[in-house]
Design goal:
Strand content: 25-35%
CATH class of the largest domain: Alpha Beta
Number of domains: 2
Distance between the termini: 27 Å
CATH architecture of the largest domain: 2-Layer Sandwich
Strand order of the largest sheet: 1-2-5-3-4
CATH superfamily of the largest domain: ATP-grasp fold, A domain
Largest sheet: 5 strands, antiparallel
Helix content: 25-40%
Radius of gyration: 17 Å
Number of strands: 9
Amino acid sequence: MRHLTRHFPLDGTVIPLGTPDSLDAGIVGDGAALLSRALSLGLPVANGFVVTVGFEGTGTLRAVRQAWTHARGPVRMALSVNSASGHGFGAGPHFHNGSTWSGLLDGLCDLLAHDQLENPHTHWRPWSIVIQRVPAVHRSVLVMGGDPFGSGRGISIWTRAAEGDDLGERLTWRRRRRLRALAREAAGLLGHPVDLEVVYDRQGIARIVDCRPYGTAPWNQR
């Protein structure tokens, strides 16, 4: 898969999440900008960096490799896009083994190839690739700023266990309460309701890996 890098040229800079440049949607796209804003406001966003997408240039992979040395291990990758709806992130395989450099490159190529195959005519323009350090994920939770079925119940929570884990295991009442409080805090800080993807490791530590305007997360794929 690594040979695909010559078909998907990367250029620009490697920008840490939460820094001033990572807040500019014109540089990093809607998804990365909102995620970085959430991090800069103190929300528990998983640390990582943004690779801008552009024309082929020298030194980009060298810069990515230097940044990778600070995020070695399991990673989450996502394409940050710009769209009229402010959707934020494109679809694709997100979790990869970044414990080795070749593993990171394979994941990066898989993500870009998926985007090319699944979205050949999309009006979304990939703006950057977000790479976040996420220790082995035990559970992934989608916290929506409302109820997609229109029942008026307010914040809704959708959960999924990692492959091989007990799918019947449920979030505790306390953890659900914390997630709802996190969604309200995020909405208050960002100025509008949001959908959050939160991942838990086996120690129970929660990290935000996706933050979008309410109603734009792919909840129907959960």
